[in-house]
Design a protein that fits this description.
Order of helices and strands: EHHEHEHEEEEEEEHHHEEHEEH
Largest sheet: 7 strands, mixed
Helix content: 25-40%
Number of helices: 9
CATH architecture of the largest domain: 3-Layer(aba) Sandwich
CATH topology of the largest domain: Aspartate Aminotransferase, domain 2
Number of domains: 2
Radius of gyration: 21 Å
Strand order of the largest sheet: 2-10-9-8-5-3-4
Strand content: 15-25%
Distance between the termini: 26 Å
Shape: globular
Length: 356
């Protein structure tokens, strides 16, 4: 039976990226060594790193003055690195979910944090609007896609202050005007590669910013001076990112990926909106293309476990909603084929015929 991987992360990767990474583990480009055992100082890895950075810049049309670096520690490490490097007196944050809350918590260790708006009042089921940013903010931080709750900021915000965005779960899913951001970062394990590497796109002109001494490993300048090579980088994870970037380019780039993502999401949202048994949990103008969250209508709540088992028997994996919200979540990242989305739709229709 074919498996349909709807896991929220680590998540589905392009099949060709998995296959080519597996081949490289056995023998990288015919050099007689495994990808897992080459030196990160070797010409072989430098060529991998150069191509990965180059493709990242090409696919996102990253302008001059910005650099791409790869770090460890996940996006969670960036939650403290950002205020360490950027926060002098006050930072502004938009609170749209758990990961935004965690970023806010870390920033409070370094200075005043102004939460300009929050959707916590409705369990993060919408993106706040009509908020104002303090005129003395050092930067404004947003989380563009909220994996747990299924909301997403699908446009580039206009900010009078340096804009920093956690794009862990929607990077490369749509075109982004990078020039509007001081920094974009995220864990790779949703749309880019396996767990273990974090990407950072940063405007070099903004560093150094904070008026404090910063530990070497937590200073962005360190990693910009020796691009991603100050310490041993996650070689394997970066290589798989390269294979994914090649796949995106071969498909026609980020615009082509966006069109595919819109088609997948519209198909599934349309079924949910017209369902007898299911209902979406996020306000329509805030819905994510990456994480589609839905629950059983009140009169069918007792059938949630039955649907979960039914879908599992049809090959659906990872559709259980996060424990904090319950229900169901279909993560339709870039590598998710439309055939898998259709298979979930077919399962929904079949279950409704039996139970509604």
């Amino acid at each position: 039976m074919k498996k349909h991987n709807f896991n929220a992360g680590p998540s589905i990767l392009p099949q060709i990226a998995i296959e080519n990474s597996a081949k490289a583990i056995l023998n990288l480009n015919g050099i007689g060594l495994s990808l897992l055992e080459i030196s990160h100082r070797s010409k072989d890895f430098q060529s991998i790193l150069d191509e990965t950075m180059g493709l990242f810049k090409e696919l996102l049309a990253i302008p001059e003055g910005y650099e791409v670096i790869f770090l460890g520690g996940g996006a969670s490490m960036q939650f403290c690195m950002i205020p360490y490097n950027f926060l002098n007196k006050k930072a502004a944050y938009l609170e749209t979910g758990v990961w935004a809350q965690k970023a806010i918590k870390e920033a409070k260790f370094f200075g005043e944090v102004n939460v300009v708006a929050s959707s916590a009042d409705k369990n993060f089921t919408y993106i706040p609007k009509n908020y104002s940013i303090p005129v003395d903010a050092d930067y404004f931080h947003i989380t563009t896609n909220n994996t747990i709750y299924g909301s997403e900021i699908r446009h580039d915000i206009e900010s009078p202050f340096p804009l920093i965005a956690d794009m862990s779960s929607d990077i490369l899913s749509r075109p982004v005007d990078v020039s509007k951001y001081a920094m974009i970062y995220g864990g790779a394990q949703k749309n880019l590669g396996p767990a273990g590497v974090t990407f950072v796109i940063i405007n070099e002109s903004l560093l150094p910013k904070a008026e404090r001494k910063i530990p070497t490993m937590l200073n962005y300048s360190t990693h910009l001076k020796e691009p991603s090579l100050y310490n041993t980088p996650p070689v394997f994870a970066i290589y798989t990112c390269l294979e994914t970037l090649r796949w995106i380019k071969n498909l026609g780039g980020v615009k082509a990926i966006e069109a595919m993502n819109i088609s997948k999401a519209e198909l599934l949202y349309n079924v949910i909106d017209n369902s007898k048994m299911f209902v979406g949990t996020v306000e329509k103008d805030s819905r994510s293309l990456m994480n589609i969250c839905f629950v059983m209508k009140d009169q069918y709540k007792d059938k949630e476990d039955a649907f979960m088992e039914f879908a599992k028997n049809k090959g659906m994996l990872g559709i259980k909603g996060h424990r904090s919200v319950g229900g169901f979540r279909a993560s339709t990242y870039n590598a998710m084929p439309i055939e898998s989305v259709q298979a979930l739709i077919d399962a929904i229709h079949e279950f409704e015929k039996i139970n509604a």
